[in-house]
């Protein structure tokens, strides 16, 4: 039996961009249907699991921290980081420019009007370390939402649930789209299968067993189903040659439902997919000792002090320090012939500098618990979630002397590649450079520069010290893996989020938002991201898509 529905605006995918799109379409007076292949506890999608970082330009938080930012500086950083160089970058360039205006303009006030607030210390992600015209953020711009990812999702989730209670919006869980329907070249909705009900908790992998068919007719259809990070087959298929060979072993930084299935469906309906070879995966992944989805990895958000070694024990080159250049580090490590690398650090560094990405790994910020925040961020000892990995994580080695540490590293899978003499030489040489306030070691110079920023000195950068100093111990080594995360390409769209076909004309009735659209235009980040721009891209493209679809009714 085929279950049939009709609506004004159909939103496929209830992650952040889908929730925003639905909210904006509702504001235009449209009737909205919101569907997703997952169970209702997953409302909010991948964004719910995020750290909640948002990119702003010249914000009050930046100014209070003594940061001098401007739209011109941000545009300089974005252009250098994106490195647009293709004919397909025409719309992504326009989207990038529009997004920067949004980030420097109404974005913060718009979110504040919805009750979203921000942690006062601005983080400095993707620091670059090249010249002024190289990639990276010249200044700190990473604003953590008070409440992390759930705090960003909350006002939009509340809006759609309120509209659902009023009968203006329908939410259909466990509805998996298998095709977009069309009439005379106009997309008129979607069809697919209703999956078996699931009582699984948020993020847990669910079945794909069908029990019914469905059809939904709509005047406007918005695809907001995310990227491919949960689908390793697609990640490897689209892996670009410029990044070397894909890793044999990958951790998964997103739930299994981030499977990229809607890309081919949208393409069949006439949409053009561009920049699929641009992707954003991290090299600081660790195996989750308490996994929620298959292959669940957690990314370390490191401060800049840890010594980064490849699998053989050789230190990574300038400026591939922790937190400086994600894609450059990935490219370098893929050329090493090994799937893993190492952080070597002291207890003093881990207490000050280690933060783990994810709402569930930051209970103080997620729970808006000031007392816990002061204790975990400013008090003695590692934060609770970090300590849990020290106690239970299979990638962590903790020892009281260097020989024992190296033995522990070599005992882990792949550890036989490690050269003990090289590890010792790298650590001893690095520590000698600490003796003076000046140095030829670029990483140590950057540490001292970072501490000139109040935010780093307060909670993110340890005072420079010898890693081998027993008073700073014990010694810690962390085995790092590549962890999948974001797709930077996607469905090409114009500045109204309308999907475009191979000939550049609009596909009538079809819109795209969020990661499915490369966060706008089919790839507004270009090759690299400045961080804090993924949730922001979902907010911006979802808002544009919802308003445009609502206006078209």
From TrEMBL:
Question: Which key words are in the record?
Answer: Flavoprotein, Oxidoreductase
Q: Name one Pfam family in it.
A: FAD_binding_2
Q: Which Gene3D superfamilies does this one have? A: FAD/NAD(P)-binding domain, Succinate dehydrogenase/fumarate reductase flavoprotein, catalytic domain
Q: Which residues form a coiled coil?
A: none
The answer to keyword Oxidoreductase applying to this record is yes
List the molecular function annotations (GO) for this entry: steroid dehydrogenase activity, acting on the CH-CH group of donors
Q: Where is the FAD-dependent oxidoreductase 2 FAD-binding domain?
A: 8-535
Kindly give the NCBIfam families that the UniProt entry links to this protein. Answer: PRK12834.1
This protein is called FAD-dependent oxidoreductase 2 FAD-binding domain-containing protein
């Amino acid at each position: 039996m085929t279950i049939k529905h009709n609506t004004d605006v159909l939103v496929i995918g209830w992650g952040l961009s889908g929730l925003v799109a639905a909210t904006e379409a509702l504001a235009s007076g449209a009737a909205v249907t919101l569907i997703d292949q997952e169970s209702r506890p997953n409302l909010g999608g991948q964004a719910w699991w995020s750290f909640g970082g948002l990119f702003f330009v010249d914000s009050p938080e930046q100014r209070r921290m003594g940061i001098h930012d401007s739209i011109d500086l941000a545009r300089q950083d974005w252009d250098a980081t994106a490195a647009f160089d293709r004919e397909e970058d025409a719309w992504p360039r326009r989207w990038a420019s529009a997004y920067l205006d949004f980030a420097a303009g109404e974005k913060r006030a718009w979110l504040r009007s919805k009750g979203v607030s921000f942690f006062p210390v601005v983080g400095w992600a993707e620091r670059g370390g090249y010249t002024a015209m190289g990639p990276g953020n010249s200044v700190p711009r990473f604003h953590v939402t008070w409440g992390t990812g759930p705090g960003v999702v909350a006002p939009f989730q509340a809006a759609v649930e309120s509209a659902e209670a009023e009968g203006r919006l329908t939410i259909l869980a466990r509805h998996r789209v298998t095709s977009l329907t069309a009439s005379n070249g106009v997309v008129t909705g979607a069809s697919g299968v209703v999956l078996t009900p699931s009582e699984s908790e948020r993020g847990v992998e669910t079945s794909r067993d069908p029990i019914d068919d469905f059809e939904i007719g709509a005047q406007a259809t918005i695809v907001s189903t995310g990227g491919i990070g949960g689908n390793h087959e697609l990640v490897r298929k689209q892996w670009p040659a410029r990044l070397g060979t894909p890793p044999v072993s990958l951790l998964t930084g997103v739930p299994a439902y981030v499977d990229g299935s809607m890309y081919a469906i949208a393409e069949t309906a006439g949409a053009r997919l561009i920049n699929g070879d641009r992707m954003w995966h991290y090299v600081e992944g660790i195996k989750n000792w308490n996994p929620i989805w298959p292959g669940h990895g957690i990314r370390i958000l490191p401060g800049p002090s840890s010594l980064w070694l490849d699998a053989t024990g050789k230190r990574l080159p300038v400026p591939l320090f922790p937190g400086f250049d994600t894609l450059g580090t990935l490219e370098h490590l893929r050329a090493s012939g090994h799937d893993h690398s190492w952080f070597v650090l002291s207890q003093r560094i881990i207490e000050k500098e280690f933060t783990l990405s994810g709402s569930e790994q930051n209970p103080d910020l997620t729970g808006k618990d000031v007392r816990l925040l002061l204790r975990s961020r400013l008090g003695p000892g590692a934060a609770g979630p970090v300590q849990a990995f020290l106690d239970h994580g299979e990638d962590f080695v903790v020892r009281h002397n260097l020989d024992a540490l190296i033995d522990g590293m070599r005992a882990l899978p792949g550890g036989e590649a490690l050269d003990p003499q090289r590890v010792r030489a790298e650590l001893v040489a690095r520590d000698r450079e600490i003796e003076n306030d000046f140095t030829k070691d670029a990483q140590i110079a950057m540490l001292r520069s970072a501490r000139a920023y109040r935010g780093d000195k307060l909670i993110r950068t340890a005072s420079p010290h010898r890693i081998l100093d027993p008073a700073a111990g014990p010694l810690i080594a962390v085995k790092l893996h590549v962890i999948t995360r974001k797709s930077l390409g996607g469905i090409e769209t114009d500045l109204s989020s309308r999907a475009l076909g191979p000939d550049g004309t609009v596909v009538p009735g079809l819109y795209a938002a969020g990661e499915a659209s490369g966060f706008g235009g089919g790839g507004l980040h270009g090759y690299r991201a400045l961080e804090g721009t993924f949730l922001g891209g979902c907010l911006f493209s979802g808002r544009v898509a919802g308003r445009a679809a609502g206006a078209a009714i």
